[in-house]
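Same chain as my last thread, 210 residues:
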Amino acid sequence: MGSKKILVLAPHTDDGELGCGGSIARFCRDGNEVFYVAFSTCRRSLPAHLAPDTLEKEVIKATNILGIKRENLILFDYDVRDFPKDRQRILEDMVKLKNEIKPDIVFVPSLNDLHQDHQVIANEGLRAFKNNSLLGYEMPWNNVSFNTNYFIALEEQDIAIKIQALKEYESQKNRNYLNEDFIKSLAYTRGVQIGARYAEAFDLIRWVNW
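reply #2:
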């Protein structure tokens, strides 16, 4: 796929892995430079018995498994479910990221994602990176509809790495979308659509060739 700078914008820790973890693993395997930005570590929504930095520690381990360099992991601390009130600040952070990283491809949540925080990252991402190639990643439990008009074919090892990375989110293990069978089945379904063993599907928002 050539050497590119890939930027993954995740509203919360684990969203990027869920939406495009297999593709991240492939990008890293192919020698691309991947940057991962999580806008909330959800410290104020964790159960009382867990340390406030639990998800911060988990995302560091998970992204390392995917192949992302520690210096390419950027964490913000916006309050979960309150992104709409911080829309302008988030946009300003994204503009800084655009100028500093100069990414070739940017991954954001789908523009049809129901979660209010995901909507902010998708919409402000479109504003900040309107001159970049933009792909919306799939989270079926949140998507009202989803256009599967861009696919990335994956190997067995990419899906295995995605699953291994997601297992680092011990604090989230009861979420049904973290089920290994679901993750593998969705990747298999998307692979069938393009005649590959596995794949991840994306909503092509904008594509720019230079």
